[in-house]
């Protein structure tokens, strides 16, 4: 059965956003960007909350991003090729192709998606990922730990859920970023 993978950038102190709610503290270098693109390409479906979806939708709605380089074009192509499911009670309609809107996260529906998928699924965004972890749906975590202490907000991992993990891969980048891949036991 395909896996549900939670992928996230996080600071060394465990946050996904700085104190102002920004993500710009983690601009990937070419090696990190290529690695993340390959992870994105490995999945056939992305599960997002509204905010993460709106942040990433620019990879389809703003063609100038893809035009910046071969690397950004490759990422945009990978992002656009996947199906997207956005969980939001406030979004009126998606702005990208291959995207459907769900009003509420339903663990049984996601379990069914995993059972019928041809490729892995990625969940992005710490709030949605926390729901999936709590429901026992996440098979792996793919964490990109950046060499920065943010003292920010929005922790990458839930603070009220236990998950026993097994480290199955690590990769160190020249920029100081470390990719840690864990299997959820």
TrEMBL record:
Bacterial bifunctional deaminase-reductase C-terminal domain mapped to chain residues: 2-177
Molecular functions (GO terms): 5-amino-6-(5-phosphoribosylamino)uracil reductase activity
InterPro entries from the UniProt entry: DHFR-like_dom_sf, RibDG_C, Riboflavin_Biosynth_HTPR
A Gene Ontology BP annotation from the UniProt entry: riboflavin biosynthetic process
Gene3D superfamilies membership: Dihydrofolate Reductase, subunit A
Protein name: Deaminase
Organism: Nocardiopsis alba
């Amino acid at each position: 059965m395909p896996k549900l993978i939670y992928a996230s950038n996080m600071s060394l102190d465990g946050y996904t956003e700085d104190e102002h709610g920004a993500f710009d503290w983690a601009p990937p270098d070419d090696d990190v960007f290529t690695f993340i693109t390959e992870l994105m390409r490995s999945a056939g479906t992305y599960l997002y909350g509204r905010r993460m979806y709106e942040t990433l939708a620019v990879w389809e709605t703003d063609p100038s991003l893809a035009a910046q380089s071969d690397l950004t074009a490759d990422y945009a192509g990978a992002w656009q090729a996947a199906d997207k499911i956005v969980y939001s009670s406030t979004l009126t309609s998606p702005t990208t192709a291959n995207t459907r809107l769900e009003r509420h996260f339903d663990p049984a529906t996601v379990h069914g998606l995993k059972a019928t998928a041809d490729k892995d699924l990625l969940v992005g965004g710490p709030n949605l990922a926390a729901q999936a972890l709590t429901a026992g749906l996440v098979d792996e975590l793919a964490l990109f730990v950046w060499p920065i202490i943010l003292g920010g907000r929005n922790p990458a991992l839930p603070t009220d859920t236990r998950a026993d993990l097994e480290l199955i891969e690590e990769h160190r980048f020249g920029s100081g970023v470390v990719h840690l891949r864990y299997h959820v036991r």
